[in-house]
Design a protein that fits this description.
Strand order of the largest sheet of chain A: 5-6-7-3-8-9
Largest sheet of chain B: none
Shape of chain B: globular
Number of strands of chain B: 0
Oligomer: heterodimer
Number of domains of chain B: 1
CATH architecture of the largest domain in chain A: 3-Layer(aba) Sandwich
Number of helices of chain A: 11
Radius of gyration of chain A: 23 Å
CATH class of the largest domain in chain A: Alpha Beta
CATH superfamily of the largest domain in chain A: P-loop containing nucleotide triphosphate hydrolases
Number of helices of chain B: 13
Distance between the termini of chain A: 31 Å
CATH topology of the largest domain in chain A: Rossmann fold
Shape of chain A: elongated
Structural class of chain A: alpha/beta
Chain lengths: 307, 250
C-alpha cells in the first residue's frame, strides 16, 4: 500500500462570511508531484497555509506523514520544505547569512548545507550582496534554497515560478524533477500557469471556489483529454438530444457557449454534421481537437461532462 | 529552544542596529562625563560621587530603550513576512515568542551593563576622586537591581505588542503611552480624587525606577520591585502566548 504523505479530510477555512476553503479532501502519496490547479482566489494558498500552520483550519483534519495531533504535526513539518507566496527574508542579510540563520534556528547540522542549497539553485556566487538588492528571480531561487536546505521529504511550493525568466523556469523544473526522481521527494505545487504544471505533475487536484472538484492522475487526465470533434452549435441541449437519438452517441461533453465535444465518430464529421442539420440544429463550426490541461480545467469549472 | 536563541543572536549580531545604539549610548555617556570634566576645568567641583551617582537618575532611560531592543530582536517580522518561515517549519509558536523575549532581555541587559560600566569607569578615571566611591557604586548597583525587573516588565509588554500589532511603529508608540499615561494619570487622580491613586502611581514601572535611590539598602523595596516586575512579565507573556496560539501568520 502506498504511503500517504498528506491527507486532508473536510479541510475548511472560513474568514468571516467568506468560505475560502470548503471541505477539501486531498490525498498525496509518496513520490507524487501533485499540481493544485485553480484560479486566483480559488483557495490554493489558503490550503498551503493551513498545511504549513500559518493559518488554523476552521474545521477538518490534516494528516502529515500519518500524524494528526498538533504536536506530532509540528515534528512532521520538519520533514517538509515550504515556499509560500513571495519568498521572505531579512533584507539586510546576504543569501548565505539568511540561510545560515535558518540553519542554526532549525538545528540543521553542518554549515555546508547552506552552500549546497545555494549551489543547487544557482546562487552560489552572490557573495555579500544583500537580499534587498536581489532581483525577483533571485528571491524565488533563495526561497527554493531555504525549502531544500533540510533535504525535505515533502516540498510545498506556492506559485514558485512567478518572477522567473524562461531559463529560470526550465532550471527550476529540472531541479524539481531531479529531486523527485533521485531523492523521491514528494512535491505539492500550486500554480495557475497550467502549461508549466503539465510539464511536471504526476497528479492533479482541481480547486474552484474553495471546493476540490476532482483529483486525477496525469495518466487518467491524458486519457480524458483524448481527441474529439468540437462542434459549435446554436442550441447545445437540442444538439445533444439529436446526437443521442439519431446517432446513438453517449460519449460527449457540453461546454458553455454552445460547444459540444464528441469523443467518438472522429473520422465521420460529415455524418455527424448531417445528422445535426437534419435534426434542426444550426452547426456553426466543426473542428478536430485534442484537449489539454487548460481545456480540461476550463471545462471542469464551466462545463458538464457526460459519458 | 537553544537553537532558536542561537539563531536569534546570529541575526541580531549581524545587524548594524545594536552597534549603532551602543555607540550612541556610549557617546552620550562620554559627552556627559566630558561635560563634568569641562566644568571642573573652569572651577567647578564635580567628583566621582556626584558624577558617578548621576547614573541612578539615568536608569529610567532603560525603560524607553526596551522599545529599541525589542525592535532590534523582533526585526520587523511582519513587515518582511519572515515569521512564516519559522512557523512553516513546525517551530512551536510558544518557542518563537519566548525565544525572542529571552534574546531581547539578554541583549538589553548586555547593552545596559556595558554602557553603565563604561560610564562609571569614565567618571572614575576623569572626575575628581571622592572619599566614598564604594558607597556610590553600592547605590548605583542597588538602583540597578531595582530597575532590572521593571525593564524586563516593559520588555515583556513590548514583546506582546510587537507580536500582536502588524506595525512595529504603532506598537512602540503604545508602549511609550503605557509608560507615560498611567503614572501621570494616577498622580493627578491622587491629587484630585483619592490618595489610593498616589500609591498606585508610586508602583508604576517608571516611578519604581525613579524613586529607587530613596530606598537604597531597603530589601523590601527590591522585593516589591521584583514581584511586580515578575507579575508584569508573567501576565504579558501569558497574554502573548494565548494571542499567538491562533494568530494568522502572513
Amino acid at each position: 500500500m502506498a504511503e500517504h504523505v498528506l491527507v486532508t479530510r473536510g479541510l475548511t477555512k472560513r474568514y468571516g462570511g467568506h468560505l475560502a476553503v470548503n471541505h477539501a479532501d486531498i490525498t498525496i502519496e509518496k513520490g507524487q508531484i501533485y499540481g493544485l490547479v485553480g484560479r486566483n482566489g480559488a483557495g490554493k494558498t489558503t490550503i498551503i497555509r493551513m498545511i504549513t500552520a500559518q493559518t488554523i483550519p476552521t474545521a477538518g483534519e490534516l494528516e502529515l506523514f500519518g500524524a494528526v495531533e498538533p504536536a506530532q504535526l509540528g515534528r512532521m513539518r520538519r520533514r517538509t520544505g515550504a515556499m509560500v507566496e513571495t519568498p521572505s527574508f531579512y533584507p539586510y542579510l546576504s543569501a548565505a547569512e539568511n540561510l545560515e540563520y535558518y540553519r542554526i534556528q532549525r538545528g540543521i547540522p553542518g554549515r555546508h548545507v547552506v552552500g549546497e542549497a545555494l549551489a543547487t539553485v544557482g546562487l552560489a556566487d552572490t557573495g555579500k550582496k544583500k537580499f534587498k538588492n536581489f532581483s525577483l528571480g533571485m528571491k524565488q531561487r533563495l526561497g527554493l534554497a531555504l525549502a531544500l536546505m533540510n533535504h525535505p521529504d515533502f516540498l510545498l511550493l506556492d506559485e514558485p515560478i512567478n518572477g522567473l525568466d524562461p531559463q529560470g523556469i526550465v532550471e527550476f523544473r529540472n531541479i524539481l524533477l531531479e529531486l523527485n526522481r533521485q531523492r523521491g521527494t514528494t512535491i505539492f505545487i500550486s500554480s495557475h500557469i497550467l502549461t508549466e504544471l503539465a510539464n511536471l505533475a504526476t497528479h492533479y487536484g482541481f480547486l474552484e471556489n474553495g471546493m476540490m472538484l476532482e483529483q486525477i492522475s496525469a495518466r487518467d487526465l491524458e486519457e480524458k483529454c483524448r481527441a474529439c470533434l468540437e462542434l459549435e452549435v446554436d442550441d447545445a441541449s437540442h444538439a445533444a438530444l439529436v446526437l443521442e437519438q439519431a446517432l446513438g452517441e453517449r460519449d460527449y461533453e457540453v461546454l458553455p457557449g454552445g460547444i459540444i465535444r464528441l469523443y467518438s465518430s472522429l473520422d465521420e464529421p460529415e455524418r455527424v454534421t448531417r445528422a445535426l442539420v437534419e435534426g434542426g440544429v444550426a452547426v456553426q463550426g466543426v473542428h478536430s481537437r485534442g484537449a489539454n490541461l487548460e481545456d480540461y480545467f476550463l471545462s471542469m469549472i464551466g462545463g458538464v461532462r457526460h459519458g | 529552544m537553544v537553537n532558536y536563541i542561537h539563531g536569534e543572536f546570529y541575526k541580531v549580531l549581524r545587524r548594524k542596529y545594536p552597534y549603532i545604539c551602543l555607540a550612541l549610548l556610549l557617546a552620550g555617556a562620554g559627552l556627559l562625563v566630558w561635560g563634568w570634566a569641562f566644568t571642573n576645568a573652569h572651577g567647578n567641583h564635580v567628583d566621582f560621587a556626584a558624577g558617578g551617582g548621576m547614573a541612578v537618575s539615568l536608569l529610567v532611560v532603560g525603560l524607553y530603550a526596551t522599545v529599541l531592543v525589542c525592535d532590534m530582536v523582533f526585526s520587523e517580522q511582519y513587515k518582511f513576512s519572515t515569521l512564516k518561515n519559522e512557523v512553516a517549519y513546525g517551530l512551536p509558536r510558544r518557542r518563537i515568542y519566548v525565544g525572542k523575549l529571552l534574546v531581547a532581555a539578554a541583549v538589553g541587559l548586555a547593552l545596559a551593563l556595558i554602557v553603565l560600566a563604561a560610564y562609571e569607569a569614565l567618571c572614575y578615571a576623569v572626575l575628581l576622586p571622592s572619599p566614598d566611591s564604594g558607597g556610590v557604586i553600592g547605590q548605583v548597583l542597588y538602583c540597578l537591581a531595582a530597575s532590572i525587573p521593571q525593564w524586563l516588565a516593559v520588555l515583556a509588554l513590548c514583546n506582546l505588542l510587537f507580536f500582536l500589532m502588524r506595525s512595529s511603529t504603532v506598537a512602540a508608540f503604545v508602549v511609550i503611552g503605557v509608560l507615560l499615561v498611567p503614572s501621570n494619570l494616577f498622580t493627578i487622580m491622587g491629587l484630585l480624587l483619592h490618595p489610593a491613586f498616589t500609591t498606585a502611581a508610586a508602583w508604576t514601572p517608571d516611578a519604581i525606577v525613579i524613586n529607587a535611590y530613596k530606598y537604597v539598602g531597603d530589601g523590601s523595596y527590591l522585593a516589591v520591585s521584583w514581584a511586580l516586575g515578575a507579575a508584569w512579565v508573567a501576565v504579558c507573556t501569558l497574554l502573548g502566548l494565548w494571542a499567538m496560539h491562533r494568530k494568522e501568520i502572513h
